[in-house]
Design brief:
Helix content is about 25%, strand content about 25%. The protein has 17 helices and 36 strands. Strand 17 and strand 18 (about 365-370) form a beta hairpin. The radius of gyration is 30 Å and the shape is globular.
């Protein structure tokens, strides 16, 4: 169910229920209808959360018809306009377009308005319009009935509300450009509606402001006059990312080639919003104190930072200014700082990519081609579907400084010949969440890591990931190894930095709730172990002579313990299980064991367990290293814990 149809049908059902509420208020049966309606919405977060807001406030038996209808008006029809500023009134502009036809230059059209001190909010809108319009187009959308759904991020997760098309107008005037709220002089609604939505969100206590003691608190007032926030609040609300602050005290860092200069340059090129908080008033440099500017570019000729004032066309002379590293360095007051939305996600772990590193060679009918040179429509050779055209190419970029904080984003290096002879033909670098086809099963690259032939790569520069999507999931030859294409999934696609391109190319294509894979992908168990055996045997040939540590902890109806190779950390130990005259069995000691603490050695995997085979006696079981025959001893768990703790 799409967001539009879910919203429309849910609104219709709520209005029908409201029309049936009698003098005694909402009945228990009607309250049950609301709960069932909420359960039916599945993965539609907007309609689901605004319906939940209705239910939380008025879903109990006894709610009056007037109170229930008011909640529908608030959450589904956006009728709870913020109190306008003095001398202004609210006028509906439902016939005006939401967004500009083109975002080119649109940021110059945005102007702050007056009196409510929300430069921190409007500067973020200006910056997004200049650098990352997809943050805006994903934050607000038309419901088709003169209302708009809005999403803001907060530390507790995405928050949703609805606004109507009412905007502030000066009394006696007819256009919202005359009003004292944020607006865009091209006649589009997005800037004014997002400012208004944030005021409503603060009134609903689902957006937060920075109080004087540095703690976030909800003001609880639905009013333009009480709009308040820290310097970075709207930046976080739009992007869903944490914000890093870069001080201005080091002129070498600000100058071309310096760390701050490189960071800002990288961020602007890759759609990561950057602002400047100017606490110091410097009239000679066209800087206003206690004000926020959008950093909309870097002049590569002069090395100057280009700042855009959110006052916009209200004061064209001060609309844009260019400051050198020295001029920025002169801003030494408390609060003078560059803010960039280039941290991790506010409410989730860093986005783990699922793709190939730049430079990976892909086999096509025209030979091997670097993945970054492929385009939509090019054909690739696939394992299950023959020649197939590329539907989309996804991208993710991460700067070196970001990787240092988010090591799961670093690629896995699969060395040449690690999977089989000449497979891959040369080192293949993919993300840890990427799957390789081994025989007839898919295995995550992160599960392949053995510390010898397959390792977590150490890279010292920026990385650029690419992924190939076909109409359905398949495998392609990357550096001579069968490796997966992208599997369509709504929650995964949003991780790619060019996800807006896909939505523009395929606006009506439904998103899959879960990926449909071309082969089984076991995450544990004998099927995964069987796929890993030959790869581990190949790694053993290149490894140092093994030095096994570990023990058997349980030896009854279940066999349990742990084993690790102290000479080759990360290489799973192949264990041979013997019992009398029965044929030997092999198992891998690779299960998670975060409870193991060995002085001087990092051990967090190596667990094994299996039931006692039928017809065997526990006392006859012998477990040893498959390569050396070295035996594991039986130490009950308490004795083992004491031994490990004392070294």
């Amino acid at each position: 169910m799409s967001i539009d149809s879910a919203y429309e049908s849910t609104l219709s059902t709520l209005q029908a229920i409201a029309g049936q509420i009698g003098p005694a208020g909402l009945t228990a049966s009607q309250a049950g209808q609301l709960d069932a309606l909420l359960a039916s919405l599945g993965e539609d977060p907007y309609t689901q959360l605004i319906l939940n807001s209705v239910i939380q406030a008025g879903g109990a038996a006894g709610t009056t018809q007037a109170a229930f209808s008011a909640l529908i008006d608030q959450w589904f029809l956006g009728a709870d306009d913020p109190a306008p500023l003095p001398g202004n009134t609210m006028v509906n502009f439902a016939s005006a377009p939401l967004f500009p036809v083109s975002w080119s230059g649109a940021y110059h059209m945005v102007q702050q308005g007056y009196e409510n001190g929300d430069c921190w909010l409007v500067a973020a809108l200006v910056e997004a319009a200049a650098i990352s319009p997809s943050d805006l187009t994903s934050a607000i959308w038309a419901n088709g009935n003169g209302t708009y759904g809005v999403r803001f991020y907060s530390p507790t997760g995405p928050q949703y509300l609805t606004v109507n098309a009412d905007l502030m107008v000066l009394q006696g005037q007819s256009g919202f450009i005359s009003g004292e709220g944020a607006n865009s002089t091209d006649g589009t609604l997005w800037a004014g509606l997002l400012e208004k939505a944030y005021a409503e969100a603060q009134g609903d206590e689902i957006a937060f402001s920075l109080s004087t003691d540095g703690a976030y608190s909800a003001p609880g007032a639905n009013s333009y006059a009480t709009l308040q926030g820290g310097w970075d609040e709207m930046l976080k609300a739009l992007t869903g990312r944490t914000v890093n602050n870069y001080g201005l005290g080091n002129i070498a860092a600000l100058a071309p080639g310096g760390t701050v200069y490189q960071t800002v340059s990288y961020d602007l090129q890759n759609g990561l919003d950057v602002l400047l908080a100017s606490n110091t008033d410097v009239p000679a440099d066209d800087l206003i104190g206690n004000h926020m500017y959008a950093v909309t570019g870097i002049d590569l000729t002069t090395g100057n930072y280009i700042l855009t004032n959110p006052w916009g066309q209200t004061d064209p002379a001060d609309a844009e200014t260019s400051l050198s590293a020295a001029q920025l360095n002169a801003l030494t007051g408390a609060g003078d700082v560059i803010l960039a939305a280039d941290g991790g996600l506010l409410t989730a772990p860093p986005p783990v990519p699922n793709c190939y590193l730049r430079g990976t060679l892909i086999l096509t009918p025209r030979g091997l081609r670097p993945i970054e040179r492929l385009v939509i429509g090019d054909e690739v050779i696939t394992r299950f579907g023959g020649l197939r055209p590329i539907k989309w190419i996804a991208e993710q970029k991460f700067p070196a400084y970001f990787l240092k904080k988010n090591s799961p984003l670093a690629p896995v290096r699969i060395a040449a010949n690690a999977l089989a002879e000449c497979v891959p033909r040369r080192d293949l670098l993919v993300s840890a969440g990427h799957s390789m086809l081994l025989g007839d099963v898919l295995v995550l690259a992160g599960d392949l890591v053995n510390g010898v032939t397959i390792t977590q790569a150490e890279l010292y520069g920026d990385i650029h990931y690419f992924h190939i999507e076909l109409d359905t999931h398949d495998c392609i030859l990357a550096e001579g190894a069968w490796s997966e294409t992208y599997a369509n999934c709504a929650s995964h696609r949003a991780l790619f930095h060019n996800a807006a391109q896909y939505r523009a190319l395929y606006p009506h294509e439904p998103a899959a709730d879960a990926p449909r894979l071309c082969a089984k992908r076991p995450e544990a168990g004998p099927l995964l172990d069987a796929a890993l055996f030959q790869i581990i045997i190949r790694a053993e040939r290149a490894a140092r002579p093994p030095r096994m540590i570990g023990c058997i902890e349980r030896l009854d109806e279940k066999i349990q313990g742990w084993a690790a190779d102290a000479a080759n950390p990360g290489l799973p130990v192949r264990l041979k299980i013997l019992c009398g005259a029965a044929p030997p069995a092999i198992c891998l000691a690779r299960g998670p064991r975060p409870d193991i603490h060995v002085p001087g050695l990092e051990v967090n995997r190596g667990g094994f367990q299996f039931p006692l085979p039928a017809g065997m006696r526990a006392a006859e079981i012998v477990i040893g290293h498959a390569l050396t025959g070295e035996r594991l001893e039986f130490w009950p768990q308490l004795a083992r814990a004491s031994m490990v703790a004392t070294g």
